[in-house]
Amino acid sequence: MNGGPSGFNNAPVTKSFVIACALFTVFFGIQGRSFKLGLSYEDIFRKLSIWKLISSVFAFSSTPELMFGLYLLYYFRVFERQIGSNKYSVFILFSVMVSFLFEVMALAVLKDPTANLHTSGPYGLIFASFVPFYFDIPVSTWFRIFGVRFSDKSFIYLAGLQLLLSSWKRSLLPGICGILAGSLYRLNVFRIRRAKFPEFIASFFSRLSWPSMGNRPTAPARNLAGNVPSFTTRQVEAKNLSIYCCTFSRRAARGLHRYPDVDGL
User: Which of 157, 156, 14 is nearest to 82 (CA)?
Assistant: First the structure.
């Protein structure tokens, strides 16, 4: 199992989102404000802080969270290649907004103005992506380590678990809200899976995204299982290759018959 071709080929939305997360995290980290980005009851219901609402979507609060978060976002680019950049943009917007609404509802129920129960970062999008990852990405290999059975998907789950528990209670809440948002998208609430942005909005990310160095554009990947061709496809390719070899042999034989050997001249 892998995420398809390396780099951000056919994934401009993911590339733009990853770059934005990295820039926001570095910017607030240099200023020493990373741990102050998490939302609280007071930030939403008493003194609405717009800059916190925006920064909490992109900026991680620590370097380990940034590393694991960007790794998962980079891997989940496979979904953009599967459904296209337009629908994936809808998935991002839906996941971020719905998970944020769940977080606001949780803060309203707890009503603790002193508690900071929300860490910053795109937890809603990351953990919403685990829902299609669980249902749509098949297991390709199994192996054992010290007698414990693992699959090739286990490393992604372990990275997600590490990110979920990175800030304990502060990261549990947005992670659970993200899973709920991904489940609603999976259930096709309000037929969200058919929704699309206007074409000029989708093409904006293609212009915004910087070209990858050394990577040539490739055709969109439609197979989630590492873009491995099916058995039928391999049969057809082998048959075509054998036909080509037979044709080439017949043409070569006719050419030798038409032109006699040099020693016979």
Answer: 14
Residue 262: CB atoms within 10 Å: 6
Chain position carrying tokens 């007698």: 147
Answer for the pair 14, 92: CB distance below 8 angstroms, yes or no: no
The predicted-structure confidence for 24-72, as pLDDT tens digits, reads as follows 999 998 888 777 788 877 778 777 777 888 888 999 999 999 999 999 9
Burial class (CB in 10 A: 0-12, 13-18, 19+), 154: middle
Contact 221, 7 (CB under 8 A): no
Q: How far apart are CA 226 and CA 133, in angstroms?
A: 13
Residue type (1 letter), 184: L
- Parallel, antiparallel or unpaired: strands 148-151 and 142-145: antiparallel
Q: Give residue-wise pLDDT tens across range 137-184.
A: 999 999 999 889 999 999 999 999 999 999 888 899 999 999 999 999
Hey, what are 38's tokens? Answer: 């998490």
pTM of the shown model: 0.76
DSSP states along 52-84: HHHHHHH--SSHHHHHHHHHHHHHTHHHHHHH-
Which of 76, 59, 52, 55 minimizes the C-alpha distance to 22?
59
The strand pairing partners of 149, in sequence order, are: 144
- The amino acid present at 257, given as its one-letter code, is H
Q: Do the beta carbons of residue 163 and residue 69 sit within 8 Å?
A: yes
Q: Which amino acid is at 93?
A: L
Residue 39 phi, psi (nearest 5): -80, 150
Contact 163, 171 (CB under 8 A): yes
Q: What is the DSSP string of 138-182?
A: ----EEEETTEEEETTHHHHHHHHHHHTTTTHHHHHHHHHHHHHH
